[in-house]
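Why do we care about 3D structure at all? Because function follows from shape, and shape follows, mostly, from sequence. That is the central idea of this module. The next example makes it concrete: a single protein chain, its amino acid sequence, and then its structure expressed as tokens.
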Amino acid sequence: MKSYTSLAGRYLKEQRKRSILTIVGIVLSVALISALGTMGQSIQDNLLQRAIYEYGSYHFAYSEADSKLYGEMKNNALLDRVGAIHDGPKTKLDDTFSIQVNEASEEAFGLVPLHLQEGQWPQSPDEIVVEKWILPYLPGAPKPGGETELTGPDGKPHRYRISGFLINSAADQHSASASAYTLMRAEKAASLPEITLFMTFRPGVDISDHLPEFQSKSETFSANNRVLSYMGESTNDNTNKALTVIFGTLIGLVVLSTAAVIYNAFHISVLERIRQFGLLRTLGATPGQIRNLVLREATTLALIGIPIGLLCGWGALWLVIWLMVANGFQILQMESFQLQWHNWIMGGSVAVGLVSVYLAAWLPARKASRVSPVEAVKGAGSIVQESVRRSRFPSLLQGFGIGGKMAAKNIRRNRTKFRITTFSVVVSVTLFIVFHYFIREMFEMTAASNEEDRIAFSVYGYELSQNGTKSFVTNDMLKKIAALPGVDNVYSIYQTPLVNAWIPSAKINPDFSELTGTNFETVVQGSESYQEASAYFKLYDAARFREAERYLVSGTTDPQKLDQDNAVVIVQTVKTGLRDSEKPAIMELSRLKVGDKLKLAVPDDYGAEKPRAKERIAIEVTVGGILSQNPFDARYQRTDLSVIATEGIYEKLAKLVPKELEADYPARASLIGFDVALADGADAEPVREQLNVLARTIPNGRVIDVAANQKEARQFTLQMQIFVYGFLTVIGLIGSLNIINTVQTNLLLRRREFGLLQAVGMTGGQLKRMATLEGVWMGLIGGFWGLVAGTAISYFLYLQLDELQGMPFQFPWLGALVACVFAFGVGLLSVQGPLRRMAKANLIDELREDG
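And the structure:
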């Protein structure tokens, strides 16, 4: 033997199980930080790409700019790209539809949120791209690649060739006004008196520092805040600080958990070998040689575990991405996606792994090197005598017989190992609770959706006149469309009149008025005082009420029961702006409960040109159900109470209106159209053809086609769910394996101790009960402190998220419950395997020194 350090390889080979357990800890830890780092970067990229898709890639813009400002921006050394758009006049196509041809510079097509569905961007001022839904209404009804004559941006007739189609805009289809774009030459942009400019900064420029300089140049300045926020360059410095603190906290927690996994596995192993190190000291080994011996073991384990950990983390992500692409998903909104190797993430993972391994080895080795050889040899490994204390609370474990008493004594005697093992549980529970809370809130802020995202088509067919609304849509049409292959559901669309809500004054949320500065008008009827708020009033058919049940907080969405109880369903949560802040806030407008009364009233200023009614028209209804959000349309209203009613409730209100308002409040609800939701993966083209045929048979019939947007929105939401739940699964798996690894290492290293207990008469059942109770107690104590720490850190993250979007704090019940149950279960089950193996072992072998 040339040196004591050559013992490192011998020990690792002799103690293969211990070495494998420690290597597994290193592998899992490095895989955790590398996979989570890469996944976190992917999620950030996903959110940024989605924001660019929805809002454009420009950093800031000027509306109503002139050629002078355009020239100044083109020559600015800080800017990379400058795009310009000039809006043209509208062309009336018939009594209903119109189109507006705008011209955009080549740079603008890549900066603004315009997306091609097929074809190519205009290559000359004689070509245009249009929304496909308007094609049948264009002069000459041109085919793709055909020509049509429209009013150009200069106000003169111009003949254009259709080079491509934009993804249909739902807003344009609702307004029956389409947009088209042609190419604007750069020299023309420099001569136009009024244009809209879009700019991006050069790479490497500190955007947030230079934005104020450009803001001062024009009052029409506007920043692309959503994109800048995801880039960490928000104009609001509080946003940048909040994001830094949030991600710094999460990264710190991951690093802590990584270090804990390695440290625990290594520390317990080294502590159990203090007697062996003492023997080496008696043979002349110096403290430095003992430290080098342990560090040599650490180096060997790190060289094996860290590369495998990197490969496991990368491989798991690659597999997920491959499966998603194979099933037709567009990752990060890209046609082809290649998983990128981030050197800083992999390098950081290696650095954290090495630091954790050497810290885990250095601290115990330092302790071992300082132990007196005589004391180390005299002791029996880590078995120490229990200290006697006069004042001590009895342990709850003592109520479980001999096994419980021995478990309590072992925990009190071996406090260091108990704390190390319990710390693994604490870290695992904390990690899961915090990441579950954070991911849930981020998903809610960025990717949460409702049933509106499933709607691919809307069909309208009605006529407005002085006598009211004449509808051409029938229930037979709805049944015919619902029977088409690929159609998931069909929902009726009713014409809904303006309605206000009279909320009892005691039920208004005082924080809403104080924080938003909203003042409601007080209405007094008899002895009752009400606050009059605008209502987002909607009529639902039975199909919509069935979907609404998914969002039910309390009460019912059964339309028959609602009619029977004269009840409505409400959404009192709103997303509004605060009085002294630019950030949106989610809060409750009122504090109504199921069974409370409110009134639905015709607005006092409705039909101002018509004779006013002498008394306000209102009906009293009961709150029959409360939803967490609107199932359709926008999830939250800004300042309106959402009121969802049946046709029967509406008819009760309509009966009270005077004759002069009958055109606006007909006796029966008008069915003016229907929405079509497609099943996941269904082919939209056959449904589109049938709807277009149907629309041509209806007077004023038109189809609003948002199937392309719907597919991409659904894909994005599903993709985020895969990332989120995959992320949490990795966290849960790593946490569970962390606990199992630490607990089982602890038990396997106590085989000699268990052999001694059996030698003095302890039965196998008592031994099993003792070890099981120790595991359960570690799970309970670790789960409790993990819950405390996880909740505290979650609340800290909430304070930072509140800077981005005001919202109430929601205690992480689900994450806490799942984490604590798993901690208890894993603590219970992880002791069973080592106990079974020890029960089969020879007692004589267990009593050997090297057990």
